[in-house]
Write a structure and sequence with these properties.
With 342 residues, the protein is an alpha/beta fold. It folds into 2 domains: 147 residues, Nitrogenase molybdenum iron protein domain (Rossmann fold), CATH 3.40.50; 141 residues, Nitrogenase molybdenum iron protein domain (Rossmann fold). It has 15 helices and 12 strands. It has a 5-stranded mixed sheet. A 3-stranded parallel sheet has the order 3-6-7, covered by helices on one side. Strands 1-2 form a two-stranded antiparallel sheet. Strand 1 and strand 2 form a beta hairpin. The two termini are 36 Å apart. The relative contact order is 0.14.
Length: 342
Amino acid sequence: MKKARQPFAALCVIFVMSTLLLACGNSEEPPAGNAAASSAGSNTAASASPAPEASDADTGEAAAKTRSYTDYKGHTMEIPVTPKRVVYSGETYGDLLALGVQAVGYPLSMGDGQVFEDQLKGVEDVGFPINLEKTLSLQPDLIIYAGTDEADFEALSKIAPTVIFDTFAPLQERMAEIGGLLDKSAEAEAWLAQYKSKETAMWEQLKSDGLMKEGETAAVFTYYPGDRLFVMATTGLSQVLYGENGFKPTPAIQKVLDEGMGFQEVSMEAIEQYSGDRIFLLTPVADEAKQSTEAMLKSQVWKSLPAVKNGYVYTQDIMKTSSDATTREWLLGEIPKLLNNK
């Protein structure tokens, strides 16, 4: 996953953070790095008064409520066995919702336009970049953070035990990990089992209804400002499409998958190499990218593609194709609608 993380991170900047940065640009909340000094000051002031000595009974009780945990970046810390006040800052908040967990704090701008946006009522906004003062005020007992900057980690760790979490790990791996962190391992296992069942049933039904054939290929494309066209690989909608029993990637896309990349920029001249029997086109957020998409749809190169000629092109809002568990499950209901042209 190390190899895949950078492309995925760049993709979040490309396709999701373009909208978030607009909000951040107007925000006066200090980023984690800038707020570190004030947070450190608060911690220093708090430590100035001597704490009362803990009894052996108190120490034993505290130990029973915590456990040692090492995150994927190698940080080892004591975390609550059953955290009650979680601050979550990352791309896959829908993973928590799938387990019936609501964080006390989350960068709400990350949820704009997501399928779970209406499920964020009552969650406090910790900002993006994460605001340390706001995070501190929520008195979390666990912080789950997708960033990998050590300065941010150190600053957040002064507030509460902080875990650097790989939000770009595969769904099964990610859900098992987050389930363990939240004391929801049984729920994570159950969710994965029901998801697998629904996924298998969807593909079987689509084939039974004649909406797809065994071995058909598919490609997912989207534009980014600067007239940059990307084919998607190990991220978002393509993760569902290329699942077991689903569509197959074209040989050119398979190479991108084999390299562990989330996406790859392609030229219009090379688009035919990546295009499959079906094409899924993600509608972008930025106006410039929308204009590039419209120009592509009018081009002769696009019109000459087999999928276009056969009427096998489907469009979907890019903000509703995230990799989190809640969105992944939502897509299982959406894909049949797309193929039915409903």
